[in-house]
Design goal:
Elements: H1 5-18, E1 20-21, H2 24-32, E2 40-41, E3 43-46, H3 50-63, E4 67-71, H4 73-78, H5 83-87, H6 92-102, H7 107-110, H8 115-119, H9 124-137, H10 150-159, E5 162-166, H11 179-197, E6 203-205, H12 217-224, E7 230-232, H13 258-267, H14 271-275, H15 282-290
Helix pairs in contact: 6-9, 11-12
The structure holds zinc ion (ZN).
Length: 292
């Protein structure tokens, strides 16, 4: 998995044999300056937890492979955790019980869904209220910080192999938020990073990243009015010139054997069709719950 040096090195070797591993500048030039890219792939990593600094970054340096890391300046400055990192150590049934009480929803409506499917239909301040309620109800001690510090971020930035991009302040599902919150989350994260790194920040990745569900036309319009030139979704497609440069597709790789990874690369956009045969994926479950 992603937190494992041997796995990551093997995965990079598979990618290196199959693709030209290009820089974000090459991707920018592809969309804006007519650069031709053949059989190319750019690595991006979201969130910036300590695994990146301790495991991924040393391997990238050793193999001299460029990448982009999308982080929140707030999380790195506060040495705090993202909501999903806090939720992971909590009992999902107890969380559902609190939601059912606070929002007067029958528990049987929530029961079939994973806690993440439920939370991804909520606003960020509702999620943090829930986390606070759980902690006080069950006397949960503070959870250790799981993310990189500002110093580590600056060190990576100075070395120059990995480009730092923005990923909002609090990792909300932007499309669930008001116009003002969505704009602030995006703009503040870009400006915050620019202040920390003392240079322009030109790249952004949407939290969660499914077009028309996690982000909408509104978020794309907000980004067009910033210094950013590229923004990344998680739409599972090969990137191509016809893409909107503010909604560039990406494939995800976080775990699996070398055979699994090779199959996933080979199948590309058809991977999900095969993986989800006979079962509902997270996106359809969220849409289903939204209607209830
Ligand atoms: Zn993220």
């Amino acid at each position: 998995m992603l937190g494992d040096t041997i796995w990551f090195e093997k995965t990079l070797n598979i990618l290196k044999n199959k693709f030209n591993l290009v820089s974000i500048k090459d991707i920018e030039n592809f969309y804006y300056n007519g650069k031709t890219l053949k059989n190319s792939c750019h690595l991006t990593i979201d969130d910036g937890d300590k695994t990146f600094y301790n495991i991924i970054y040393p391997v990238l340096k050793k193999m001299n492979i460029p990448a982009t890391l999308f982080v929140s300046p707030k999380i790195c400055t506060d040495l705090s955790n993202f909501w999903f990192q806090e939720i992971r150590v909590m009992d999902p049934d107890k969380l559902k019980k609190i939601i059912s009480e606070d929002y007067k929803v029958d528990l049987t409506v929530l029961q079939p869904y994973s806690i993440f499917v439920i939370l991804k239909n909520m606003k960020i301040n509702q999620i943090w209220t829930l986390i606070g309620r759980y902690k006080s109800l069950y006397n949960l001690p503070p959870i250790e910080n799981q993310n990189m510090s500002i110093e580590q971020l600056k060190e990576i930035d100075r070395y120059g192999l990995v480009t730092i991009g923005a990923h909002t302040m609090n990792h909300p599902i932007l499309a669930n938020e008001t116009d003002e919150t969505s704009r602030q989350e995006i703009v503040d994260s870009i400006r915050g990073l620019e202040n920390i790194l003392d240079h322009e920040v030109k790249y952004f990745a949407y939290p969660n990243g499914t077009p028309n569900l996690d982000l909408s036309v509104r978020e794309i319009e907000i980004l067009k009015n910033t210094n950013c030139s590229l923004a990344f979704s998680v739409e599972k497609q090969d990137f191509k010139l016809a893409d909107n440069p503010f909604s560039i597709p990406r494939y995800g790789l976080t775990t699996g054997s070398k055979y699994f990874i090779k199959a996933k690369i080979l199948l590309g956009k058809n991977w999900d069709l095969i993986k989800n045969m006979g079962s509902k994926d997270e996106v359809s479950l969220r849409l289903e719950l939204k209607k209830k």
